[in-house]
């Protein structure tokens, strides 16, 4: 009996030793992981993209990251305007366990044109590039050192990824190119405005001009399901702001009416001057007398959704800077939210 007890104790000890050895071999994340680094990007280079090179590939090569353990690593090459701290970073491409990404010159040009003040007259862009390395959601990514370059794109009409919005208001036609919303950063996040000209309309989202990949909302709870139920607007006909995140499978929508407000308007900052929808041009317009001062555009007589102009370049940004009116007079003002880049015009009559 004593011999059996000794054997049992020995076996328990061996199992404990094996267990400890297994614990010791668990993956440990390094406190100071090695970041990737560009290997073919020349800092300070001044590059002019040329339209004849549109089909030529551009490659970004980099070394691998080391998180202290073996794992699949996803790399993304990002670019943004210099000094913006990558707040509006645009992905040029991603790869798993690779050391380069490649895209056509035309694709890079298309992404850079979206950063221009006026894409019809491209100017040299001061840019910053970095590589982002990710292993898991619970682990902080690491970034390469930033490399700066100046690149001048060439003008072509910018083509953005779009989601189609077929519905009962337009005959359930996914091929209708007038009812789409766009992703300005080509990152799976879409936004846009669509005139839904029917009360209590139903609609869905499709990833092309067909029904092959379509999204609905089974629970009417803001989540998207593939081949899901029709989305119910639940409201009157009007101009709807649509937001979709295909990555997170979420969506939202808001019916909007637009007005002009500001110290230059007859009621100052106290009340909107209502704008009128023009179906022929898919814009909102207003003609009125303005004083010297400032204006902004806002939806639904509130500040939750408003646009100003941060760069004084005719492009609108959510919550952006006031727009100055330098001379009193009668003006016609146009608000265009029906294109991927929101714009406005101020014309003195």
Q: Any overview of this molecule?
A:
This protein is mainly beta. It has three domains: 46-152, Immunoglobulin-like (Sandwich), CATH 2.60.40; 162-256, Sandwich (Immunoglobulin-like), CATH 2.60.40.10; 258-348, Immunoglobulin-like, CATH 2.60.40.3620. Helix content is 9%, strand content 38%. The protein has two helices and 28 strands. It has helices at 2-24, 105-113, and strands spanning 46-48, 57-61, 74-81, 90-96, 100-104, 125-134, 142-143, 147-152, 162-164, 180-182, 189-196, 202-203, 205-206, 214-216, 225-226, 231-232, 238-245, 250-256, 258-261, 273-274, 276-278, 283-290, 293-299, 306-308, 317-318, 323-325, 329-336, 343-348. Strands 1, 3, 4, 6, 7 and 8 form a six-stranded mixed beta sheet that branches. Strands 19, 20, 23, 24, 25 and 26 form a six-stranded antiparallel beta sheet that branches. It is globular, with a radius of gyration of 27 Å. It starts with a helix and ends with a strand.
Overall 3D geometry?
Answer: globular
- Total strands: 28
Question: Quick one: biggest sheet?
Answer: 6 strands, mixed
Count of alpha/pi helices: 2
Q: What is the CATH fold-level name of the largest domain?
A: Immunoglobulin-like
């Amino acid at each position: 009996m004593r011999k059996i007890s000794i054997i049992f104790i020995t076996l328990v000890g061996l199992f404990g030793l094996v267990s400890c050895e297994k614990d010791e071999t668990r993956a440990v994340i390094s406190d100071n992981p090695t970041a990737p680094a560009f290997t073919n990007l020349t800092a300070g280079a001044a590059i002019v993209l040329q339209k004849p090179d549109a089909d030529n590939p551009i490659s970004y090569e980099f070394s691998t990251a080391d998180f202290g353990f073996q794992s699949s690593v996803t790399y993304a090459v990002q670019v943004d305007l210099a000094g913006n701290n990558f707040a509006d970073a645009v992905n040029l491409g991603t790869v798993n366990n690779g050391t380069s990404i490649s895209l056509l010159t035309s694709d890079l040009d298309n992404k850079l044109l979206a950063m221009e003040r006026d894409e019809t007259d491209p100017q040299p862009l001061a840019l910053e590039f970095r590589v982002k390395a990710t292993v898991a959601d619970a682990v902080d990514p690491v970034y390469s050192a930033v490399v700066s370059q100046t690149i001048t794109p060439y003008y072509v009409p910018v083509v953005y990824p779009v989601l189609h919005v077929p519905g009962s208001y337009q005959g359930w036609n996914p091929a209708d190119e007038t009812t789409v919303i766009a992703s300005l950063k080509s990152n799976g996040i879409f936004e846009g405005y669509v005139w839904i000209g029917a009360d209590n309309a139903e609609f869905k989202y499709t990833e092309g001009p067909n029904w092959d990949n379509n999204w609905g909302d089974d629970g009417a709870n803001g989540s998207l399901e593939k081949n899901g139920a029709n989305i119910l607007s639940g409201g009157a006909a009007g101009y709807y702001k649509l937001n979709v995140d295909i990555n997170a499978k979420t969506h939202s929508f808001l019916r909007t009416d637009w007005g002009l407000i500001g110290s230059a308007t007859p009621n100052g900052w106290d009340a909107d001057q209502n704008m009128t929808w023009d179906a022929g041009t898919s814009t909102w317009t207003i003609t009125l007398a303005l004083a010297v001062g400032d204006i902004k555009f806002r939806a639904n007589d509130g500040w939750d959704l408003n646009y100003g102009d941060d760069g004084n370049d005719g492009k609108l940004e959510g919550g952006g800077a006031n727009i100055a009116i330098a001379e009193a007079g009668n003006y016609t003002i146009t608000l265009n939210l029906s294109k991927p880049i929101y714009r406005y015009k101020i014309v003195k009559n």
